[in-house]
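Dear all,

This email documents one entry for the complex benchmark we are building for the journal club exercise. For each entry we list the sequence lines for every component of the assembly. Then comes the predicted three-dimensional structure of the complex as a token string, followed by one or two observations. Please use this as the template for your own entries, and keep the labels exactly as they appear.
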Amino acid sequence: MKKILTTLLFSVICIASFAQIPGNDFGYDEYNSRRRDLFKKLPPITRQDIVFLGNSITDGCEWNELFGNSHIKNRGISGDHAEWMIDRLEGICKGQPKKLFLMIGINDLGAHVSADSTAMFVIRVLDSLQSGTPRTKIYLQSILPNNDSIRRKSAFLMPEIIEVNKQIKKAAEERGITYIDLYSVMVIPGTMELNPLYTYDGLHMNGTGYDVWRDAMMKYVK
Amino acid sequence: MKKILTTLLFSVICIASFAQIPGNDFGYDEYNSRRRDLFKKLPPITRQDIVFLGNSITDGCEWNELFGNSHIKNRGISGDHAEWMIDRLEGICKGQPKKLFLMIGINDLGAHVSADSTAMFVIRVLDSLQSGTPRTKIYLQSILPNNDSIRRKSAFLMPEIIEVNKQIKKAAEERGITYIDLYSVMVIPGTMELNPLYTYDGLHMNGTGYDVWRDAMMKYVK
């Protein structure tokens, strides 16, 4: 009888816990909730750290290994939007990291958010970071090009990417934030297409893509 | 004219490169190809390293941060199968890491591979690791339970998970490999269900799940 009561109580606790899945009210998905939750459980970010903040393109790399620097912390979340990012900055700002590299916005555009609104969301993230952790040296990376011949139906994104980059570059410069133009590094010269040497799916980096990224970024990271 | 020729030549190189997307002949997906490719570009694994090898449950964590150990390297690939893992062990074996923690098999079962075959694939990975890097201390982690009340249609997996764990535990013990029973840590006692305190989707760990994982593993990792 005692065992049955214990099991019943345990089940009620479990169901109550399950009912509180975070994220569902905010638009972001289960994976986003899971990563946010993990970040809260990890040891806090410190003043020695270098944070890589972004979506799947950030999430998919082992940055500390790529740059040979154990102070680098990956705060990428696959599928993340600039619009959603604003309410996950607190834990980062609290730690006042030494440097922060931001790349965000392609998933907003992919969800048919306008270039103007996407740029506004990115700039809102920049402003929150600057006010929340003023000692941190912030680097804004451009959104990368897509490749429509690989990733079908991404053609509509290409002029939008250029427009967002134009607006966020201007905002970064006005705020004294270093803007890193990875778009020009990754694009086929004279086109709006991501160089297929650097990707398998027209959106994310393959190993060669991350190699080129590292070479372009090394002077800022070290 | 020279510019047109250069652009043409560049395009031919790009198309030729794109034609060689790895992975498509082997059954695994683009993300798997991309992560394998990244792993080849990262600095090699060394004898001081601790490798976490697995699928999305491994991929989704920042293990070096969770355990506060910069020698930990994440070699998880979301969606990976035990069947596919065999041909990505070479880079790991070459480095002869100090320790290796393996968890794999749930995606084979999810793809309706039998428990016997899944166990066979896991054991094949163990044997390849033991022969490829005999100095490495290998730890085999059990497959974790699922939760069908959250992850609908996973009920069919539950007895299969228990059967695979039974077989791989026996194989590990026969080979002198430490078997770590995380299944019992994560399950609701007296059921086959993953404790919903540790998951949002019935399959992957949330922050609390990784916390519990760390506590159970700390004595083996440090």
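Observations: Confidence is low (pLDDT under 50) at residues 7-24 of chain A. Chain A has two domains: 1-30, 43-221.
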